[in-house]
Design brief:
Elements: E1 11-19, E2 22-31, E3 38-42, E4 65-69, H1 87-101, E5 106-111, H2 113-125, E6 130-136, H3 148-151, H4 160-171, H5 176-188, H6 191-206, H7 209-216, E7 221-226, H8 235-239, E8 244-248, H9 255-258, H10 260-274
Parallel strand pairs: 3-4, 3-5, 5-6, 6-7, 7-8
Antiparallel strand pairs: 1-2, 2-4
Helix pairs in contact: 1-2, 4-5
Length: 300
Amino acid sequence: MYIPARANPPRLGQIPVTWRGREFLLPYCHREGSGGPSILFVHGLGGAKENFQAAFQSPALADCELLSFDEPGTGVARFEPDAGLDVSALAAMAHSVAERLLPAAYFLAGASMGGLIALLMLRRHGVGRIQGLINLEGNLCPEDCMFSRRVVSHELGSFEPVFRRMMTELRESRYAGDQMIAHNMAMNVDMRGYHAYSFQTVAESDSGRLIEEFLALPLPRLFLYGSVNSGLSYLPRLRASFVQVREISSSAHFLFYDNPVETFQAIGEFVHSAAGLRPTSQLSDPTLVMPAAGGDKAGI
C-alpha cells in the first residue's frame, strides 16, 4: 500500500547566477529538510531538474533537504549561444546555486554529465562543505561518452539530423529512462546547448584525469550503475578502492527513471550513513556501511 512520505512540499523558484559578467536565470526545485542530510542533484546532457523528481517522493530521503536545477539550455533555462558556455561554466553555476541555496554541509550527486560537472566543481573549489559525492553513471573514462562522442564530429549547422536520430534511438529503446530522456530532449533541451556541452565532456573523459580524481577524493563516495552496464571496464578498480559501488537492477544508463525506488533508496542509505545519521529505512546490506574516509555507464 502506498503511503506518502512525510516531508515538506518542494517549491519552485528561479535563481540568478553570474558567469563571466553575464547573468543567467536558473529554475530550481527545492525542499527543506527535517533533520536529514542536504543533497544537490546535478543533471546530465539531455536532462533537466525533473530527472530527480522521484527523489522528492522517496521515503528514504523524506527527511532530506533536496535541490535540483536546470542548466542553461535545459528544462526552462534559456541558452545563450554567444556566451561561450561549456561544462566548466555549468560547474561554476552549480557551485553558485549551492552557495546561495544550501548554506550548510551537503552531498553532491551528479548523473551522467552531471558527474563530470561535480568533479569539475571539486577540482576548482575543493571539498569545502561537501560531505560526500554520489556518481550516477557519471563520466569517468572514454567509454562513458555514448552520445557526446557522436556530437563532436559535427558542426552545429549539420548537427540537427544527428540530434533527431539520437532521440529516435532512445525513444525506441525498451528502457523507460531512455524513452523519458528522448521526450525531454524533444521538449526541454536546446540543441545548441547539447552540442556545446559535448566537446568538453569528451575531452575531459578522454584525458584520463577523471577517474584518478574520483578515486583520490577525501570524501565518502558512492557509484551507482544500471545492471545493463555491468561490463564497465573500470568497475573492478572502483570496487577495489574505498568507493561504494552499487548496481541498480533492471536499469540502463538512466537508472533514476528505470528503477527510481532502488536508486533513491541506495542514495538515502549512503547519505544517512556517511553523515552519521539514522537512515529513514534500515540498512539492508551491511556492505553499504561507509568506511572511514580514505584513499582511494556510462556517461552520456
